[in-house]
């Protein structure tokens, strides 16, 4: 069993000591007012709530099980394999990603969401950031190791909703160039010795008529990553909205014909070359393992430290301790409510 505490160990120990002290003082005060013969139920209730509090402290230490490697060398722990990585997701949130050509009735954005979630699982304890773009770019999630909050944010990720009818003509596949460069530089300053990984997810703005901004980012800022492409060469119409239960598609303002969006792999491969990372075309249900390389955290960033892919699995156990603590707290709440009802019933009997 290994531990990856969310707070420093000394702080968790200090909290546990303080909590035990407070609970001991509470026990003393209760026993003083308890009559002979009733000590046992009082101590049992005190023990249950005390254990529940300590279980929460243990859960905060994030106990986990790691795989047995047999006689071979032990795998790197998550702390050494992913704790000092900054993972940046650059996400195409244009109307193009609404097209349902990833699979029948499955949009490109659905594939993007699935891949981001899978990528996040590959780097336990890394820091993550999301940058969304269409015609312009904006930071959707600041660089943080708060994966607990990131996952529901990813699950609700969608394309931009307020877009003009011909929005696909103005998409800039390189709109995130400036903000990505700034955030990569800031991450290196804020977290000395960390490695930046960049994953670009989109379809290449195949129907755009706007000038495409190239990515001009120093290779020393990027230690690895990938460009992931979604969609088919045939493409499909771009959904706009539902009207009276019917799906309306975006249409050309002159010809009134539905706008068709297809993947532009030439643009995506160009972006991969600019970022110095490989390109992968993605289909529904594909595993993420072939996409993501492991990165040697001790290797100099400017030496392209990409090594063979290796996923380090940890079986988290914090949920088990929180469930046990919740059960004990629920019992105490039930007993407390029962005591209050009994006291009120006794009070009414006395008044009568």
TrEMBL record:
This is VWA domain-containing protein. SUPFAM superfamilies: vWA-like (SSF53300). It comes from the Bacteria. The chain crosses the membrane at residues 6-31, 43-61, 317-337. InterPro entries: vWFA_dom_sf (IPR036465). It comes from Mycolicibacterium komossense. Keywords: Membrane, Transmembrane, Transmembrane helix.
